Amino acid sequence: MPGNEKWDVIPTRPANMAPPAPEFPWPAGHRAAMFLSFDVDAESAWTSKDPAHAERLVTMSFGGFEARVGTPKLLELLDQLGLKATFFITGWAVDAHPAMAENILKAGHEIGHHGYHHLLPDPGDPYIQDELDRGFETLKRRLGVVPVGYRAPFGESCDELRISLKQRGILYSSSWRDDVRPYRQVLPDGSPGVIELPPTSSYDDWMHGLSARFSPRSVFPKEHVLSMWKDELDEVRDWGAMVTTVLHPQVSGRPMRLRLLRDFLTYAQAHKDVWITTGAEIAAHYAACEAAAAKAA
């Protein structure tokens, strides 16, 4: 049909060739799981959208809140609740705020790779490999960490990135939004990729709790978000599945949002059948179940 040439190149197959996630049991009799994770972008959340924002100091202050207030408050909350989480950190944030990153590590939390400048890994972009390399180098140089987990900036992915993650020894990714359980990615050549721990879109606090001059929208009240988060968790418990949070210290580290998060995590902890843990723990459990299933087959 004339005029459809640009769409005719779209392959007639699912974007994700992996089968639906296997229903492996959760450990220690748990009924469901929560991957508790944070994205620490700091000011790189804003310069990745426009490098000129570096000179717009009030715009930059939205991200600067993370090191000054947000992350310390979240670390204090997690310590009070006895919880461990995964913090996906951009290399730029580690270089700019080394004390913040060191404090996350000292508190016993997992550090994950989140790019360097928080640049969108769009197919064909020339900086995909450099973003990976600089992120790995910074985490090793500043923190002595070789990460096993990766979350893509802006939550996007492409085949070049997926192949590179496997080649670099990454155990798991947490970017895709197409399942409620962990699964193994399938690469374009049919070989197994990394484990995917899919984020849960409703637990992205940026969508509900941040209003800025360049993204003006109303902030949702605590009651609305807490009700949504509770309902999602309750249904996931019935399914025996997993929720994955995508929380940002420049959002959930602010007073009203911290109170919301405290109430939600307290609610989740009251359900003793929910395994609340890091991405590394969940991915390791999945890998062990996968290996046992393959041996039994």
TrEMBL record:
CDD domains: CE4_HpPgdA_like. It comes from the Bacteria. Residues 56-277 form the NodB homology domain. One of its GO terms (molecular function) is hydrolase activity, acting on carbon-nitrogen (but not peptide) bonds. GO terms for biological process: carbohydrate metabolic process. Gene3D superfamilies: Glycoside hydrolase/deacetylase. InterPro entries: Glyco_hydro/deAcase_b/a-brl (IPR011330), NODB_dom (IPR002509), PgdA-like (IPR037950). Is involved in generating a small heat-stable compound (Nod), an acylated oligomer of N-acetylglucosamine, that stimulates mitosis in various plant protoplasts. Belongs to the polysaccharide deacetylase family. This is Chitooligosaccharide deacetylase.
